[in-house]
## 1
Amino acid sequence: MTTTTHTAGRAYAPSSTVALQDTLALVGRLLLAYMFIPAGFGKIAGFAGTVGYATSAGLPLPEVGVAIALVIELFGGLALLFGIGTRWAALALAVFTAVASFFFHNYWALPAEQQMMQQLMFGKNLAIVGGLLAFVTFGAGRFSVDAKLGKA
């Protein structure tokens, strides 16, 4: 039987649980970063095409919007990957993902035959926001630059 000890009002789980949590936090950060880093590089490589797509979606100031998206995806994704400034990076990515979902996956405004795929994409993005908010709440875990700096 494992026990949980309490120190200064905080509960600490057994070391095997903490090791698993830290490992899973690292895997979660890697998987989420995989969503954003390639997207950021893709916007660099295909900036004009991305601006055209943003324009067709009705995004105001599409060049500025795409540039902001590129910076958030690339630098936020890298921060998440290495676990540096994780809470702030995850918050920025969560807000960005939620806002982008309303512009680019607005299934409610589409004909019925086009709604299913966009509704799935919208739901996927909300799930990603949920994962990001967990990092905002709990931090990067022990296997991160934040932990090395005492900020995890």
## 2
Amino acid sequence: MINIREIRPEDAPQVRDLIRGIMETEFPADGKSFTMHDLEQPDKYYRGENDTFLVAEENGKIVGTVAVKEDTRDTALLRRVFVSKDCRGRGCGGMLMNRALEFCFKRNYQNVVFRGVDKMQAALKLCLKNGFEATKVPIQSDVKLTILTRNIRNAGPVQAAD
């Protein structure tokens, strides 16, 4: 059974291993381009009053993550959307998304924003299934940054789709 909960300090090594492993295997050319400073102590980095870092745990193992970081008083950034290959298609991403959106709704955010490159198809699809709308912004000739936004105040949280 998959349990969604807030991160604990002792989860940091598993979280780093999960995210780095996915980055190295699925995005080998891009992995070093993304900063990982927030993963050194994610339980502290995401401890602002309007921030959270959630993990999906199954049988004592971290199998997914999602984080919310305050960008402005009205806008939350959805970050670190990662699910292990073994757990994809089993509802884990949807459960993480639902909890993150509930958190944002309770904190009175107006909008939730996710930024990802086109290669992050699983995370982008998860966001789009859950009411986010896309705008593509070129940042380099060969890379496009996709910015997805969801107005949470008008629609409120919905049961997330995986």
## 3
Amino acid sequence: MKIDALTATASQLKKNQQLTAKNGDFQKMVDQAQEKQDETQLKEACQQMEALFINQLLSQMRKGIPKNDLLPQSSATRIFQDMLDTEYSKEMAKSPDNLGIADMLYQDLTRNWKAAVADPEIKE
């Protein structure tokens, strides 16, 4: 049992590190898109941020499901489920019926772009 607890802790630590890295990647992608004035790249960055949010949402929802002994879960099953949730979240963020977070981010960032182009004195 202690091995499972250590594995779960290591898994959560790895997820936290990945989230921190992805947040840094988001900022880099936004900066690159702004430098290139590439709205497509900005839209992709916003979709990735929404996918990250959805992935966290799915992960927390799964934690709320009571565990039972009838269908025990192995480490491989948990890893597979995490990978599947990641793919689900990417597809959900790309779908037309997404949560709308990417669209709101995109609109806000493009509004900031236009304001910065119109008045170079504005600093974000």
